[in-house]
Amino acid sequence: MLVICILRRAFFLSCVSASISGDTGVIHVLESEADLEWPLSKGPNPPYMVLLESSLFTKSIMMKMKNASSRVAGVVVVPKTSPREFSPHTTCPNENTGVYTETYDSNLAHCNQTVWNPRGNGLSYEEFDFPVFSLKEDNETEVIKQCYFDHNRVVNGSGPQYPLCAMQLFSHMFAVTDTATCMRRSNIDFSSSPVMVCDPLGGYNVWAFIRPYNSTAFGHKENESVVIAAARLDSRAFFLQDSTGAEGSVSGFVTLLAAAQALRQATQEAPPTRNILFAFFHGEVFDYIGSSRMVYNMKNNKFVIDLDNVHSILEIGQVGVRSGSNLFLHSDPVSRRNNTVDDEVTNLVNNLHSSTAGLNFSFVESGFSQPLPPSSFQRFLRARAIPGIVLADHQTAFNNRYYESFYDNAAHLNLTYPSNLSPEEQLEFVTDTAKSLTEVATAVARALFKQAGGNDSQVNNINADPKTVTQMLYGFLVRSNNSWFQAVMAPELKDVLQPNPPQYYVGVAKSSHQANALTYLVQYLLANLTGTATNLTQSQCKKPDELPNESTYVYSYLWVQGMVPPNSTQRESFCVRTAVRRVMAVSPAFDLGDYVSKEYSTWTESQRKFIKARIFLVASRDLEMMTLGVGVAVLFTSLLVTYFVSTKADVLFSAVREPANAAY
Amino acid sequence: MTAAVFFGCAFIAFGPAFSLFIFTIAKDPLRVIILIAGAFFWLVSLLLSSLVWFIATKATNAQDLTLQKDLLIFGCVFSVILQEVFRFAYYRLLRKANEGLAAISEEDGPPLSVREMAYVAGLGFGIMSGAFSMINTLSDSLGPGTVGMFGDSQYYFITSALMTLALTLLHTFWGVVFFEGCERRRWWVIAVVLCLHLMVFSLSLLNPLYVGSILPVYAIMLLMAVWAFFSSGGSLHNITLLWMCRKSNTETSS
Questions:
Q1: Closest partner residue to A653 among B147, B157, B234, by Cβ?
Q2: Of chain B residues 64-103, which have a CB less than 8 A from chain A?
């Protein structure tokens, strides 16, 4: 609901730091772009607090207000209808931390060849001198508008009369300047409980091997070859807490989850020669936090495999908004100049082509030599020339008109349900979007199986389940508190399920359960879809090492709530044995203490006091000064008169002679 | 509303009381004691009357707004009566104390005349009454906003301060007149004071029609000032004496 001050290596962005006592401004409800003249130049009572609807939340209006920031005390955005297109992100996402740098290939760096997000206006990365808040359209917003209409309306071009309706926003941020300064200030305090001024951004990566390894044995594994299937978890919006990411991230990771489920049976019956690692990276929007952490761990022998074990990578990008019946395969032209890598990529492409047999779409290569779109695969390429493919629904620029914006929601993916369904019925209803993503998941699963050296005869038995896909889409984009998500979650985590979608902003690494809802959901879903139910009791599930055949080095054991059988009210909880791990992922820059790193993400988030807003009437300055003047006059007059009367009291008040026998 | 309004209203409401305190009370410890005790008596009277009102509101339906308003009016009338009763009780106490003080004092006769005690007691009542009226309003006036969101007048702060000023001075004058009336056994004075107090209260019910409440209250205050002046030993003759004294002073000095 609010913009939070987030800092980077060089400067701080989209910071809403208000003064410590709050910013007050006279409310002005913006009706059109021309109306902007009133707060910016014509209005007689600056500063103004501008309230605008989402259709007016455009770059041109915001930049005009930024240039006149002495007259603007703050901006309040009320989301209403979606504009035709709106992307507050940059045109070239993560341009400095991908693989395309000047040294790698200067023709491809900085999106010189393909601009991936041409609609991007960079609003999320602008620095404003005033706070920008968002308010939901409900009773409170109506009260604010009513107050404006009652007191602040402009009548016949003349200014409104005092008292005027004003609004005060409190959002004091502690962080300053940039990450390096902020972290230095946090580190200065030598006491046992240091005062942190800002926190590094970070979340949790979720990953699982088909054949898990001993999780304490780090480093290279002899004769092990792994195919990595990757997807991104997070996204953002201008107002970080409002991030939705339906096409940007959900379409990708839901497809990968469905593919993992599809592969489960085939890989258990006929395990392929190579291992497959399903990896879900968090924090990718902010310069690839999750994937850079995994690559860093692999390079430094802090992960169960290392880069030599990685055979190839298949990443699922944005696959939800197709403009035809083709999905595009993106590869990196620079590494493909090496013949070995090129052969492997061609092999992977062939596997993908053949996996779409019998399905309603096909995979097509991008056609000409084009760089990779922004993807986690780029971080692996930075370390090693690994063959790999990124799947996407766009051939060149994104099809996503709302990239990294609040409007990239269920409606954008055409997730529509018939109107008379209850929430539980909506959960079960298979939408068209779910059907098309199911087909993609089937193709991905088959391709992964073949890529991992699996037996060709098994391939046609690998099918993704549309019911699973539609339930996941419902849970991640409409409401996370549904019966299926409740069944797969642990009992102590059931309060992360809410009647709305989870939050997709990565946040800081040590935040509450609520903020980590997304990674818990992905972890437990992946466990449910790829793990095995066991007969262990709850206490055994907590300490399975005491049992002969179980080992927490290899597996993790999760106690989940389970479904409610039709005739009873008790849930049938059980213990799941799974290879899924959920591991904290913070940018390596903070491990290395290099807060100005150009190699890794250096994003931090400011700590802040409470954030609140209130409205009230303000009186004119003249009335206030008159009150003060009258007060001072009364004080002086009374001092003078009293002094005068008290010195002349013996003259003014003649003494009364007390009667000698005064008695009452 | 801001610091300007806070200080302005504080000066209006408490300026005269403050100057009276500095110039006439602060030097004499006995006067200070009588002032504080008077304030305390007023406070006890308010406590008892508010207890009655509180029980009445809790025993009835809180949703019925007209009933609550009527109960408030009843509570205030009861409080006015109780304040005057406590003023009388304080008079009795001071008379008894005066005899004791006269016995132990070094000078001949009582250290404080009844008139001085009357004035100090009245001022004590007035200061405490003003504090209770005004302190909450003052603390709210420090914030950035002003009254008026729900249609009330934006002059609320300044008119509250003016009313508090009037009430403080009125209590002082009533004290003087009341004690004098008790001394001379003129019981009709007590009745008049009570009636005037009730009239001032009912005028305040006319708010926010500030013209209808503040102007009559200030008129009553001026009348009471004149009455208190005459009842504490002043006279027109003294004023002309003072005027001539000043005239002769200016003549001799020029």
A1: B234
A2: 95
Distance CA A363, CA A365 (A): 7
CA–CA gap between residue B124 and residue B168 (Å, rounded)? 9
Single-letter amino acid, residue A566: P
**A202-209 vs A198-200, strand pairing mode:** unpaired
B 183-222 near A (Cβ less than 8 A): 183
Hey, which bits of A547-591 come out as E strands?
A: 556-560, 574-578, 580-586
Asked if A656 lies within 8 A of B113 by C-beta distance, the reply is: yes
- Domain, as residue range, for A190: 6-86+121-197+611-618
Q: What are the CA-CA distances from residue A34 to residues A78, A121, A134, A441 (Å)?
A: 19, 21, 22, 49
Whether A289 and A437 map to the same domain: the answer is yes
Give the burial class of A509: count Cβ atoms within 10 A of its Cβ; 0-12 exposed, 13-18 middle, 19 or more buried.
buried
A–B interface: beta-carbon pairs under 8 A: 121
B95-137 pLDDT, tens per residue?
Answer: 988 888 777 777 766 778 888 999 999 999 999 999 999 999 9
- Classify residue B166 by its DSSP letter: H
| Among chain B residues, CA nearest to A656 | B233
| pTM metric for this prediction | 0.82
Supply the pLDDT for residue A442. Answer: 94
Shortest alpha-carbon distance between residue A632 and chain B (Å): 6
Q: What domain range is B112 assigned to?
A: 1-252
Interatomic CA distance for residues A292 and A376, integer angstroms? 8
**A186 and A227 housed in the same domain:** no
CA dist B116 → A148, A609, A656, B30 (Å): 56, 56, 11, 11
Q: Which stretches does DSSP call E strand in A414-570?
A: 532-534, 556-560
A218 Cβ under 8 Å from any chain B Cβ: no
Residue with tokens 């879903």: A525
User: Cα–Cα–Cα angle for B48, B51, B53, nearest 5°?
Assistant: 115
Task: Measure the CA–CA gap between A179 and A164, rounded to whole angstroms.
Answer: 40
Q: Do A166 and B161 touch (CB under 8 A)?
A: no
**B9, B19, B144 member nearest A638 (Cβ):** B19
A226 in a domain, yes or no?
A: yes
**pLDDT 10s digits, A497-536:** 989 899 898 888 776 676 788 999 999 999 999 999 988 8
Of B109, B115, B149, nearest to A656 by CB-CB distance is: B115
Same structural domain for residues A522 and A504?
Answer: yes
Residues of B in contact with A147 (CB under 8 A): 149
Q: Which residues of A touch B15 (CB under 8 A)?
A: 631, 634-635, 638-639
The pLDDT assigned to B253 comes to: 57
Per-residue pLDDT, A661: 37
- Return the SS3 of A561: coil
Block means of pLDDT (10 residues each) for chain A, length 664 residues? 47 50 84 87 86 89 89 88 88 90 87 91 85 82 88 77 86 70 70 71 92 89 93 90 88 95 89 94 93 94 92 94 90 91 93 90 85 94 93 92 90 88 89 93 94 86 92 93 92 88 86 80 94 89 85 90 86 91 90 86 80 86 91 95 87 58 36
Q: Domains in chain A: how many in total?
A: 3
Q: What is the pLDDT at residue B249?
A: 67
A350 touches chain B (CB under 8 A): no
- Do the beta carbons of residue A284 and residue A290 sit within 8 Å? yes
Do A233 and A193 lie in one domain? The reply is no
- C-beta atoms of B238 and A654 within 8 A: yes
Is residue A95 one of the residues assigned to a domain? no
What is the chain A residue with the closest CA to B184?
A: A664
Q: What is the 3-state secondary structure (H, E, C) of A133-201?
A: EECCCCHHHHHHHHHHHHHCCCECCECCCCCEEEEEEECCECCCCCHHHHHHHHHHCCCCCCCCCEEEE
Quote the number of domains for chain B: 1
CB contact under 8 A, B115 and A653: yes
Is residue A411 in some structural domain?
yes
